[in-house]
């Protein structure tokens, strides 16, 4: 069941863009990653059950049900639910035995790098394949040194990274391999669901993700020992009452979070349909615009299509940043994912001042990628309207560029709205 309650309405259309004084195309802000809700009544029932049982956390029945459902869907033996995807990454890194250095993509949310650093592991940023936006295996091999303990692959946009090549490389060089699958729940590689590769994979169920638990994450794996260590670590090292076996932390998922997750899973087919529908509308609406390329997905695989991302080429009449300003003024809060790249954020920017020269493909992409609104809060009319705004902006690019140069930063650029 798709929730229609918070959809932004279209304003009356005019010829003048909002950034030059016309009214915004949408009366309310359209966000990237607006939460998928599912059946509110079913969620309320689960919440009432939690309160009746007075079991709010500490491996309650809904958390266990959620873990079983995720493991079954992914096709692995173990799922260990966590309070956040970042906590799951930190624990996976620790349990995998990563030390010293690990190779990772700079084109990811900064939590991937921070999770390594938080565990005392130095992230070694490696360039990406310009076609897939994921780690380039040849470049990974060049980055391996005696200090390298592992590789963290990232399935960016839900498109699998070079799993087979990275697996072979890790085995050949004796490295641990884990995957950040934050974008990839509900996606497959060669017909097999993402989640069962490497030593373990980490899922995110943040509010902005395809399936959400308000805030949450999970480690999925076929390795029983890995799962057991992850369970101990997420609960202060407790094996049972009064018995602490090892160092741990508090990263447990709560019962309300699991209630939301189970409700999301029940609406999974609706989420797939909504994202596919929006993606196809965007693809049709953006087709043939010079300098605009929509990232493609493998039609033979399962894919959640939760990220609709365009690449704005240098040949386009407007730059990516100019297009962003124009769309924000229209209340379309597109995002520059992932800008400016982890290597250009602190503390890595200060520590690696030369990284920009060593990561040419990542540098190029961070200046060109733009994520568009999708999910169940968007319908075909709104997706088509966003595509039309992009088409009109690019057609009017030379005039808009001249006018933009004389403007102070657009009001949307100064806003504090979160997406």
Description:
With 419 residues, the protein is α/β, with parallel strands linked by helices. It is 38% helix and 14% strand. The chain contains 16 helices and 16 strands. The chain has helices at residues 40-53, 61-74, 85-95, 111-118, 137-143, 163-173, 224-234, 255-266, 268-286, 320-329, 348-351, 355-358, 360-366, 380-395, 397-405, 411-414; strands spanning 30-31, 78-82, 101-104, 122-125, 148-154, 176-180, 188-189, 192-193, 200-204, 217-221, 238-240, 243-244, 292-294, 308-312, 332-333, 369-372. Helix 4 (111-118) links the parallel strand 3 and strand 4 (122-125). It is globular and about 70 Å long. 50% of the residues are buried.
Per the CATH scheme, the topology name of the largest domain is: Aspartate Aminotransferase, domain 2
Mean pLDDT: 94
Low-confidence segments: 1-6, 410-419
Largest beta-sheet characterization: 7 strands, mixed
Per DSSP, the total helix count is 16
Secondary structural class:
alpha/beta
Domain unit count = 2
Helix content: 25-40%
